[in-house]
Design goal:
- The complex is a heterodimer.
- By secondary structure, chain A is mainly alpha-helical.
- Helices cover 51% and strands 3% of the residues of chain A.
- Chain A has 16 helices and three strands.
- The longest helix of chain A has 23 residues.
- The N terminus of chain A is likely disordered.
- Chain B has a domain of 158 residues: Cytochrome Bc1 Complex, Chain C.
- Chain B is built from nine helices and one strand, in the order αααβαααααα.
- In chain B, α7 packs antiparallel against α9.
- Chain B is globular.
- Classes of the chains: A mainly alpha, B mainly alpha.
- At the A-B interface, β1, α1, α4, α10 and α11 of A face β1, α4, α6, α7 and α8 of B.
- β1 of chain A pairs antiparallel with β1 of chain B, so a sheet runs across the interface.
């Protein structure tokens, strides 16, 4: 303990200089000790638990492990009924798909900035890249030339028959039906996916070498049930507190608990606008958190909670005797 | 008035921008305030440890992240030593948030914004929120199943308020840039600002033990709030 002790270390004003006693305080030593302690703790935790690194799902691994789910997803992309095909902005112009906050839709207002035509981007364009397959060329031409009603009849029949499909060395075998050119197109797409070619086609396209944007392949992957089932097995679904979790038994982003908790309770849980409402709610709460010093009632709450009596118990013991 | 070497500052020199900045800086934070060797006696609780622990963990986060960044984003997937440094990075982040949350709760219960310390609270709170963004983009940059799923789930919240196309969680290049440069710079800048404010305004004093006595207090022994 150093410095002159004043006889009455009462608190005159929160902004005034402290009139009471002082103690020695080695700031630099404290920082160095804390640094060594934190680095040591991080090393110990790493040696004990390492870090998770579950390999990503590829379109190839998906098409090999669950070809039926792959084809169900692909035909949904082709006929425009998949989750991404009907998502709305920023991917497409699906009417009434955008979320709203009351009468306002910021999603709609932002517009379609990452346009995705699921039939073209996920099925037709990749199939065009397959060389030396005259039958596929004819099938593509027939599909593209057909009226929308006939296209829908072919894809509808194919979707209906898919649960009865068998796979022989990766090739889909469906009961006889009026699938038109959709069956050879889907078989070719499955073959491309199982070879790994669709991963490359969706990431880099046909005109690029470098690429860091995985929006298209990720959205395609996520349209299938295989991706979601894998996430469910790792307790990552929104109903399982979602992305604050991490694969395995690691703590993950626990600091996101307040964001994630709203998805578990009504009225957000069943709302079609849950994402928008929760995002805005968290924005308001974050602003309030930053502005606590200026919010009447909240700024004086700690005084009434009296937890500070425990924090400064030595001080109060000395002052109050 | 003199400069740092004791030489008198002429009126012409006082007109200089450099002199003005130096005098303002030294006036606001003289060396004994910037690096104090004593503190009020009430600064004796364990709760005070968590502020410096947060900074220490941040140093470990930045150091381990720098090593990972120097070796490139693929390294930790293919090299054992890379995985080790990724583990240090991960656990330092967990320790950073743990220490920061305890620090924040402690400061809340102290009413640490009292006495003109509102900006100190605000910079700390904003640093916490920006750090959440830094960690989020880190999880998106892992290039594993976690990243895929977090990008898939995270896009909906951002898209729902119209910012998903400007901050595209499925764009690895964009998220990696945010994670290794932009957000760490913002966190470090906010933490430095926060610490300077703490040094300038001092540690918040305890709430009065009893109703404030009549103004016959002892004269202040320090030139500034501690």
């Amino acid at each position: 303990m150093s410095g002159a002790r004043s006889p009455a270390p009462a608190v005159p004003d929160d902004a005034s200089p402290w009139p009471g006693p002082f103690v020695r305080y080695d700031l630099v030593k404290e920082l160095v000790v804390a640094l060594v302690a934190m680095a040591g703790l991080a090393v110990i935790l790493t040696v004990l638990f390492s870090s998770p690194d579950d390999s990503p799902t590829t379109i190839q691994s998906w098409a090999k492990a669950a070809p039926g789910d792959f084809l169900t997803t692909a035909v949904g992309e082709l006929d425009g009924t998949s989750g991404i095909a009907t998502y709305g902005p920023p991917y497409n112009h699906t009417p009434d798909a955008a979320q709203k906050i009351g009468p306002i839709s910021l999603q709609e207002a932002a517009g379609v900035k990452i346009p995705i035509d699921t039939a073209q981007d996920y099925v037709i364009e990749p199939l065009k890249e397959i060389p030396a397959d005259p039958r596929l060329r004819l099938s593509l031409a027939a599909y593209q030339a057909a009226p929308a009603k006939l296209q829908a009849a072919w894809t509808g029949a194919y979707e209906e028959a898919l649960p009865k499909a068998r796979f022989l060395r990766g090739v889909p075998l469906l009961p006889a039906g009026r699938y038109g050119p959709v069956a050879p197109m889907m078989a070719a797409l499955l073959g491309l996916a199982q070879s790994g070619g669709l991963d490359g086609a969706l990431i880099a396209g046909s005109h690029r070498f470098y690429e860091t944007n995985y929006t298209k392949p990720l959205l395609f992957l996520a349209s299938g049930a295989y991706f979601e089932e894998r996430a469910e097995g790792q307790h990552l679904l929104g109903t399982q507190w979602g992305m604050m979790n991490e694969t395995g038994s690691y703590p993950g982003q626990v600091w996101l608990w307040l964001y994630t908790v709203w998805y578990q309770i009504e009225p957000f849980k069943s709302s079609e606008n849950a994402d928008a409402l929760i995002f805005v709610l968290m924005g308001i709460l974050s602003l309030a958190f930053v502005c606590i010093p200026f919010i009447p009632g909240l700024r004086t709450l700690p005084r009434h909670l009296r937890v500070y009596r425990g924090i400064w118990r030595d001080h109060y013991r000395e002052v109050e005797g | 008035m003199s400069d740092g070497e004791g030489r008198p500052v002429s009126p012409e020199e006082r007109q200089m921008w450099t002199t003005w900045v130096r005098e303002r800086a030294v006036g606001a934070l003289p060396p004994e305030k910037l690096l104090p060797d004593r503190q009020p006696a009430y600064v004796s609780s364990w709760i005070y440890v968590f502020g410096v622990a947060t900074i220490a963990a941040l140093v470990v986060v930045v150091a381990s992240g720098t090593i990972l960044g120097l070796k490139g984003p693929e390294w930790w997937h293919v090299a054992g030593i890379g995985r080790f440094f990724n583990g240090i990075h991960l656990w330092a982040v967990e320790l950073f948030f743990f220490a920061m949350v305890v620090h924040l709760w402690g400061k809340f219960f102290m009413g640490a914004w009292r006495g003109g310390r509102g900006r100190t609270w605000m910079t700390g709170a904003i640093a916490f929120l920006v750090a959440i963004g830094a960690a989020f983009t880190g999880y998106l940059s892992q290039q594993n199943f976690d990243s895929q799923w977090i990008a898939f789930e995270g896009k909906d919240g951002l898209n729902s308020v119209g910012i998903g196309s400007f901050f595209n969680v499925a764009d690895f290049g964009q998220m990696y840039t945010f994670h290794v440069i932009l957000l760490p710079l913002a966190v470090v800048a906010l933490v430095v600002w926060h610490v300077l404010l703490v040094r300038r305004h001092g540690v918040v004093p305890p709430y009065p033990a009893k109703p404030t006595p009549p103004p016959q207090q002892a004269a202040p022994s320090e030139g500034s709030a501690r």
